[in-house]
Amino acid sequence: MITYCQRDVSRGLYRAFKVLHLKHLTRVSVRMSTSDTAVGLHVIPTRCYFDETVQVIVRGLLPKQSVKLVAEAKDDKGMIFQSSAVHKASEHGEVDLNRSPSLGGTYIGAEPMGLFWSLRPLTPHNKFTWWDASKPVLVDVKVVSHENPGHVLAKETHQRHFMKEGIQRVVVTDGKIRGTLFIPPGPGPFPGVVDLYTLGGGPSEPRASLLANKGFVVLALAFYRYKDLPKKVDKLDLEYFEEGIRFLQKQPKVKGSGVGVISISKSGDLALSMASFLTGIKAVVTVNGCCACTVFPLHYKGTVTPILPADPDKVILTEQGLLDISKAMDDPAANENLASVIPVERAHDCNFMFVASEDDMNWDSVGFAELAAQRLRDSGKENFEIVRYPKAGHFVDVPYMPFYPSGIHAAVGKVVAFGGEAKTNAHAQVDLWGRVQEFFRKHLDTDYAQHKAKL
Questions:
Q1: Which of 27, 99, 241, 410 is deepest in the core (most CB within 10 A)?
Q2: Range of weakest confidence among 7-16, 38-47, 208-217, 335-344
């Protein structure tokens, strides 16, 4: 009886071991054929600030395995943006975006942040819009099989924040002005900057908040189409922007030596006008702005600066079916247009940075920058610098902001080309961001300027 039971148990254990062994072999076989259980996706760090870089690494692939990395984000308007890159793993089954070149997708070559700046809207001609800087942008990154795009091997969600801990975000409804104020932590005082964005009039919270992270009190000032401001305007009043300057200067944490203004596109001529007609402005950055008044006439204390005319007959239809409006503006240097040109030589104790993209298809940013600089030279002033970016387009924004090559122009009402090449534009954004901070510190922060002088 005992012998029989031992033989029966032995047979049962053998059968059970055989089943377990077969299951183990099957599991290993699946793992080796797809490698999905071994694949690890690492976005390091998992959260950072929008203007910071990350390291994207994929491990656990088969040697020389081809995979596609896909990134996806949704903006505040609900628009979905996607990017992709095809990579071949190393001999060790690894893809590191710092070294591994993209062989196809929305960008080509070794670009550590390519998945972020090459994000494209699924609905064409949309700009990545983010209204509330207190919220992070969530970017879903996944690794998929190159042969079977529906097979996800690994996935991770990365958070890109705008505001550092301790930054105050204050919605401004003081008097007539509307916008958002960003105040760094600490006793201060800090240099103050007014941030003006382009047509649309709302405040640019991403740029303003990221600048506040660097130690500036920043007022992102709206000028129409925002909250209770007019939805449509036929003129702009410089008194409104003067009120914004005075509001910023009154903030307890703002240094009293003068403030700066940063602008882009249409707001460029507003920034130049503020420096020319108002007091207390020591540094102005214009990114692809115009040296003459555009779109809306500018009123100030009974005087009117007329707009620079545009000629619709000079608009060109591109092969892609987009409008090229780069030659539509009249020549500001022509005698009949001189009344529209901003008298920048009137600016008292102010320094200028004119940023101009050479492939700007919105208008002749390089020519406008040169005209403004020449006007200063003719008055015996050298208080300016010109920064030119070959192959960059109209929208040179904060680092890693998705490229915006075309969209509905607020003044034209139709889709136009804004120009630029995605990779070059992305590199220009990184370079300019450092220049802007250095420029404002040099001209607004006396302590910093003295420290640099000693070095």
A1: 241
A2: 7-16
Q: Check residue 13 and give its pLDDT.
A: 36
Instruction: For residue range 422-442, list pLDDT tens digits in order.
Output: 999 999 999 999 999 999 999
Q: Quick one: which of 374, 357, 360 has its CA closest to 431?
A: 357
The catalytic residue positions are: 265, 360, 394
- Specify whether the CB–CB gap between 175 and 199 falls below 8 A: no
Check residue 135 and report its DSSP letter.
Answer: S
What pLDDT is recorded for position 37?
53
Three-state DSSP at 3 gives: helix
Q: Where are the beta strands (DSSP E) in 10-151?
A: 40-44, 47-49, 55-59, 66-74, 80-88, 95-96, 120-121, 137-145
DSSP category for residue 107: -
| Per-residue pLDDT at 452 | 67
In the three-class reduction of DSSP (H, G, I as helix; E, B as strand; rest coil), residue 443 is classed as helix
CB-based contacts of 69, cutoff 8 Å, min separation 6: 56, 58, 84, 85, 87, 95, 97, 105, 115, 141, 142, 143, 144
User: Please, are residues 256 and 278 in contact by the beta-carbon 8 Å criterion?
Assistant: no
**Which residues are 87's β-sheet partners?**
67
Measured in degrees and rounded to the nearest 5, phi and psi for residue 361 equal -100, 5
* 403 DSSP 8-state letter: P
The chain-wide mean pLDDT, for the chain, equals 91
Instruction: Name the one residue in this structure whose structure tokens are 């410089």.
Output: 238
Return phi, psi of residue 338, to 5°: -65, -25
Burial status of residue 90 (CB atoms within 10 A of its CB: 0-12, 13-18, 19 or more): middle
Please check whether residue 274 is in contact with residue 253, taking contact to mean a CB–CB distance below 8 angstroms: no
Nearest to 284 by CA among 186, 193, 362, 361: 193
